[in-house]
Amino acid sequence: MKVTISGTASEAPYEQLRAQIADQARSGSLPAGYRLPTVRRLAEELGLAPNTVAKAYRALEGDGVIETRGRNGTFVAAAEGSAREAAHAAEEYARRARRLGLDREAALAAAEEALRAVYVGER
């Protein structure tokens, strides 16, 4: 995620942050399911007050751009219900594969094999 806050812009810092995250989510450069930094960490990285980042996150959540999953963190939300459900299932799969000790490549290979098996003949 790349965000820059201009001290000379006419927009407030929280609005600059909100707009940049929303634009990146809409363009796909921040894909559905992408975990955003914590409020505190992003505030430190950008040199902003935590309340400024929290305000931007609240606005983004109100717009349906991001979703907070309690202690699990804040994530870019899927645009549609089915895409949101698929992103959640993929995240659950990734967490389980990691708990099972699979590395990224092995987890990806297993997922690709499962997709091939399910989608056989659907062309």
Automatic annotation (TrEMBL):
Alphabetical keyword list: DNA-binding, Transcription, Transcription regulation
Entry-linked InterPro entries: Tscrpt_reg_HTH_GntR (IPR000524), WH-like_DNA-bd_sf (IPR036388), WH_DNA-bd_sf (IPR036390)
HTH gntR-type domain segment(s): 11-79
Database matches in Pfam families: GntR
Protein name: GntR family transcriptional regulator
